[in-house]
């Protein structure tokens, strides 16, 4: 399913993911929110360099890509500390903010395996259709990257690099409980 807001022109993409999402180092989220050359469930293909102009402009203006919960602009849940293009796609790394209730809920859902996707919210600046009808996205204005239940690109998810996912989840769950105990003790 593709989401589209007529007032803002913001597009969103959702689809069923096919693998686990994991947290790294406590509440750090990292992974690829978009992969170059991969056809998503809506028939769109993001081309290499599609985010470059937008990311450069945002950096020059001192702005950041927003981290939202399920594309809801009223529910920011963290900060993307790193958003960059590389040879594979749009890599993101950021932190869920433990002071935000929804972020704590998101961390619990990710740890339990209930949430396992990333999804982008953007406006298309330049695109064309190929002979098979796929939309080739050449330039995008990236607004946000959300933690979601159903990303449009199945491969767009967060993972802990080079670690046993079960070990990571158990350690992070223990850290979450310890953090919750400290918060309760403090106030």
Order of helices and strands: EEEEHEEEHEEH
- Give the mean pLDDT: 81
Structural class, judged by helices and strands?
A: alpha+beta
Return the domain count.
1
Helix proportion:
10-25%
List the helices and strands and how they pair.
Elements: E1 2-4, E2 11-13, E3 28-35, E4 44-46, H1 52-61, E5 66-69, E6 72-85, E7 89-96, H2 101-112, E8 117-129, E9 135-148, H3 165-186
Parallel strand pairs: 4-9, 5-9
Antiparallel strand pairs: 1-2, 2-8, 3-7, 5-6, 6-7, 8-9
Word description of this protein:
Keywords: Hydrolase, Protease, Viral release from host cell. It comes from Rhodovulum steppense. The protein is an alpha+beta fold and 187 residues long. The protein has a single domain (7-186), classed as Serine Protease, Human Cytomegalovirus Protease, Chain A (Alpha-Beta Barrel). The protein contains three helices and nine strands. It has helices spanning 52-61, 101-112, 165-186, and strands at 2-4, 11-13, 28-35, 44-46, 66-69, 72-85, 89-96, 117-129, 135-148. Strands 1, 2, 3, 4, 5, 6, 7, 8 and 9 form a nine-stranded mixed β-sheet that branches. A hairpin with a 2-residue loop joins strand 5 and strand 6. Helix 2 (101-112) packs antiparallel against helix 3 (165-186). The protein is globular, with a radius of gyration of 17 Å. It starts with a strand and ends with a helix. Residues 14-22 and 160-172 have low confidence and may be disordered.
């Amino acid at each position: 399913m593709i989401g589209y807001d007529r007032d803002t022109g913001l597009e969103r993409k959702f689809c069923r993911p096919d693998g686990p999402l994991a947290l790294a180092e406590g509440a750090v989220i990292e992974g690829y929110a978009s992969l170059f050359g991969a056809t998503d469930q809506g028939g769109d293909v993001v081309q290499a360099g599609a985010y470059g102009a937008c990311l450069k402009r945002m950096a020059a203006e001192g702005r950041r890509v927003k981290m939202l919960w399920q594309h809801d602009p009223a529910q920011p849940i963290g900060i993307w500390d790193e958003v960059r293009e590389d040879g594979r796609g749009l890599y993101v790394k950021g932190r869920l903010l433990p002071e935000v209730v929804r972020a704590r809920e998101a961390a619990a859902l990710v740890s339990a395996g209930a949430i396992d996707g990333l999804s982008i919210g953007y406006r298309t600046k330049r695109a064309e259709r190929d002979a098979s009808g796929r939309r080739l996205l050449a330039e995008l204005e990236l607004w946000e990257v959300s933690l979601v239940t159903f990303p449009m690109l199945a491969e767009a998810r967060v993972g802990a690099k080079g670690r046993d996912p079960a070990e990571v989840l158990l350690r992070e769950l223990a850290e979450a409980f310890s953090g919750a105990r400290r918060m309760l003790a403090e106030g």
